Amino acid sequence: SAETSAVRTVRLESPDATHRLGVRLGELLEPGDFVGLIGDLGAGKTHLVRGVAEGAKVPRSEVASPTFAIVYPYAGRIPLYHADLYRLTDYDDLYATGFLDLEGTDSAMLVEWLDKIPQAAPRDYLRVTLKHTGGDARDLMAEAFGARPAALLEAWMP
Ligand code: ADP
Ligand code: MG
C-alpha cells in the first residue's frame, strides 16, 4: 500500500461518541473511498458503520435489516457497500463474493475485518482500528494511505 501519510487517534467514551464520529465520516465519503475497519468482536466496527450510513443518508431501514450476506449494498447520498470479511479465509473466498468487482468504482466501501484478507485493500485507503479500553471506552486509530485518504482524514479529524 501507499506510504502512511497521516494518523489520528481518538478516545471514544461511549457508543454515542462512536456513532457521531461515524456520521461525520459518512458526510465526507466520496465515490471511490475505501475504509478498512479492524478490531476484535465487539470493538465497535459495525456501530461506527451505522453512523457512517446515517451520515451518508442511507435510509435507516436498509441498515437495520439483518442478513448473512458478506457484502451489503446501501443506497445513500452515494452508493455504499458495507462488507464483513469475518467468515472468509482467503482471497479466493473474497473473489467468489463478487466484492472485488465492486472496488474502485462509483461506490464507497466500508470493510470490516480487513485484516483477515489484507489483499482486499486497494493501494490508497483509510484504515480504522478500534480497541476496547475498558467499559464503554474505545480507542480509535485512523491511518491514511495515499493522498485522497489523507485529505479525507484531515477533514474527518482536523
Ligand atoms: P464489531 O462490529 O466490532 O464486532 P459491534 O459494533 O457489533 O462490534 O458491537 C459493539 C458493541 O459495543 C455494541 O453493542 C455497542 O453498543 C458497544 N459499545 C460500547 N461502547 C462503545 C463505544 N465506545 N463505541 C462503539 N461501541 C460501543
Ligand atoms: Mg461487526
Structural features, described:
The chain has 158 residues and is an alpha/beta fold. The protein has a single domain (4-156), classed as P-loop containing nucleotide triphosphate hydrolases (Rossmann fold, 3-Layer(aba) Sandwich). Helices cover 32% and strands 29% of the residues. It is built from six helices and seven strands. The chain has a seven-stranded mixed β-sheet with strand order 1-7-6-2-5-4-3. Strand 6 (125-132) and strand 7 (138-145) form a beta hairpin. The longest helix is centred in the first third of the chain and has 14 residues, at 15-28. It is globular, with a radius of gyration of 14 Å. Adenosine-5'-diphosphate (ADP) is lined by residues 12, 14-15, 17-18, 39, 41-47, 112, 136-138.
In short:
The chain is an alpha/beta fold and 158 residues long. It has helices at 15-28, 45-55, 60-64, 91-97, 99-102, 147-156; strands at 4-12, 34-38, 71-75, 79-84, 108-112, 125-132, 138-145. The model has no long low-confidence stretch (mean pLDDT 92).
The spatial strand order of the largest sheet comes to 1-7-6-2-5-4-3
- CATH architectural label: 3-Layer(aba) Sandwich
Structural class category? alpha/beta
Helix content: 25-40%
Radius of gyration: 14 Å
Number of helices: 6
